[in-house]
Amino acid sequence: MKGFGEKSQANVLKGIEFLKQRQGLHLYPFAADKAKAFLEAIKALNGIKQAEIAGSLRRRHEIIRDLHLVASCDTDQRRTLMSEIAVLPMIAEVISKGEHKALFKLKSGLTAELQLCEQEVFPYRLLDLTSSREHLTALSAHAKAQGLELTDSGLFKAGERIVCQDEAEIYKAMGLNKIAPELRENLGEIEAAAQGPLPELVSTSDLKGIFHAHTLWSDGDCSLEEMANRCRELGYHYLGISEHSQAAVYAHGLEVDRVKAQWQEIDELNQKMTDFRIFKGIEVDILGDGSLDYDDELLAGFDFVIASVHSRFKMEREEMTERILKAARHPSVTMLGHLTGRLLLAREGYPLDVEAIIDACVEHDTIIELNAHPSRLDLDWRYGPYARKKGLKISINPDAHSTQGLDVVDYGVAAARKGGFSPEQVINTQTLEAVSEWLAQRHQK
Ligand SMILES: [Zn+2]
Ligand SMILES: [Zn+2]
């Protein structure tokens, strides 16, 4: 096109392609809300015995295309129940409807597949509809090697169904320990489950405190005291405050004198509370050359430092990797924030050698944040197996800009579980005493 350079044209085309790809896709919270409402309506019908959400939503994928649900009832009620479900208020259109299976377009725009089966088939159907294709293929091969046959309606030995009450029993009958729905991606979970029980996955109740929150001091909506009080109400024992640094002018990043003024307010609040502590932190900008947005002396005065990229996203992979590696190696940096800068369904992350950064973080005892915001979930769970093998520690951070913003930790926990992380690998499962000691030790180093 006239007036557009080669590079601009390529960028426009890339943007169009990106828009096309995200059509019909939804972030987890939206899809989960709609699925839950549909599930509750199905469960409320007379004759439904058991009903569950399956599919990629149950596997806690960050982006959802379609919903999958499975329900059980007596055979003679199936036809009636299918008809009752087809007229539930959330349904916009019946795409197809048989006695066993129906496809609906919901008013929310999501497509939902529902399978109705007998109660004895339910656990097998749930396993089948939950697991990824890759997990199922590997699982079927595993069954075959044991002289069994796994289908969506049973696990069979010489044509006889092995009776199982739930998914755990199905895995057990194949000589496997239970595999949580989040892990069913064939990333080594079947081999691990053959050898012993899988490690316990982190859960929300394991979290003892929070890092990464903003207040009115930078671009948050609540005061420091309000944030701390909400954290205490939620049962946390500490809050790591991390405003933006001075380069982030758009977000009222703190100049040096405002940093020191905030420290004073934190000291005063800490004096008032005996059962809770506010840590003095900062979310410091990683500048274009990998240096940080404050001098080393100021940085050394914080209890913890999160280093994040907020500008100059367009960089070649190698240059961006070097930039972030430099920050990861800085002695004052405690953790890296939202590693790739991705905003799911809105902006791709910058290209980055994530594995090289994980290696450097392990070497320098630097944490990588798992940003819990549902449109970030960055570190990506797909790096979980590599990160765990290397011994990386993560922190499940809400990046909260208000008291409500603290609630997103649940999504971060789900992503951490999906990455296979145990409580010991998550820094904010540690008690106030342990975390304080760890931060102090790091300071001395
Ligand atoms: Zn940030
Ligand atoms: Zn932030």
What does this molecule look like?
This protein is α/β, with parallel strands linked by helices and 445 residues long. α12 runs parallel beside α13. It has 3 domains: 92 residues, Beta Polymerase, domain 2; 74 residues, Beta Polymerase, domain 3; 241 residues, TIM Barrel (Alpha-Beta Barrel), CATH 3.20.20. It has a 7-stranded parallel β-sheet, covered by helices on one side. The longest helix has 17 residues. The protein starts with 5 loop residues before the first helix and ends with a helix. The protein binds zinc ion (2 copies).
Helix content: 25-40%
- CATH architecture annotation name of the largest domain: Alpha-Beta Barrel
CATH topology of the largest domain: TIM Barrel
CATH superfamily of the largest domain: Metal-dependent hydrolases
Oligomer classification? single chain
What structural category characterises the helix and strand content?
alpha/beta
Average predicted confidence as pLDDT: 96
List how many beta strands DSSP finds.
Answer: 17
The level 1 CATH classification of the largest domain is Alpha Beta
How many domain modules? Answer: 3
Distance between the termini: 58 Å
Number of H- or I-type helical stretches: 16
Main sheet characteristics: 7 strands, parallel
Bound molecules: zinc ion
Sequence of strands across the biggest β-sheet: 11-12-13-14-15-16-17
Shape: globular
Residues in β-strands, percent: 15-25%
Low-confidence parts lasting 5 or more residues at pLDDT below 50?
none
Rounded to the nearest angstrom, the radius of gyration is 25 Å
